[in-house]
Amino acid sequence: MTKKMSYHWHLRQIMATRDLYATSDLVPLLAERGIHLSREQVFRLVTQPPQRLSMDTLAALCDILDVRVDDLIEITVTHDQVTKTVNSHLAPTPAPTVRRSTIRRPQGL
């Protein structure tokens, strides 16, 4: 059995509960806390789950929105059952077919 980790990013929903609908509203609030991100970076942070996030930025978001980390990030775990077959005879994959190529040069070269 294998575990697969995933997460849900709730920044946009939490912002809406605080009447913050424009992503650009976060730019000055983050800057007040020493986090200087462009409008485009903040837009991506709000609209897409981040793959990387600095602890300073995460702490600033929690302070601005008055939430805890687990309010912003919901971690989920799924268990995948790996089935193994004993003595299974799989058909071998056929070798790729070889085709001859002809290279033609343009006229005049």
Please tell me about this protein's structure.
It is built from 5 helices and 2 strands. It has about 110 residues and is α+β, with helices and mostly antiparallel strands. It has a single domain (about 1-80), classed as Orthogonal Bundle (434 Repressor (Amino-terminal Domain)). A two-stranded antiparallel ribbon has the order 1-2.
- Classify the secondary structure makeup into a structural class: alpha+beta
Spell the H/E element sequence: EHHHHHE
Radius of gyration: 26 Å
CATH uppermost class: Mainly Alpha
Total beta strands: 2
Distance between the termini: 62 Å
- Sheet with most strands: 2 strands, antiparallel
- Quote the average pLDDT: 88
CATH superfamily: lambda repressor-like DNA-binding domains
In the residues, how many domains can be counted? 1
Apparent shape: flat
CATH structural fold name: 434 Repressor (Amino-terminal Domain)
CATH architecture level-2 label: Orthogonal Bundle
Q: Runs with pLDDT <50, length 5+?
A: none
**Distinct helical segment count:** 5
Strands across the major sheet, in which order?
1-2
**Strand portion, in percent?**
5-15%
How much helicity do the residues have? 25-40%
Summarize the structure.
This protein has 109 residues and is an alpha+beta fold. It has helices at residues 11-17, 26-32, 39-47, 55-65, 69-72; strands at residues 2-9, 73-80.
Keywords:
two-stranded antiparallel sheet; alpha+beta; 434 Repressor (Amino-terminal Domain); 109 residues; flat; 2 strands
Topology of this protein?
Layout: E1 2-9, H1 11-17, H2 26-32, H3 39-47, H4 55-65, H5 69-72, E2 73-80
Antiparallel strand pairs: 1-2
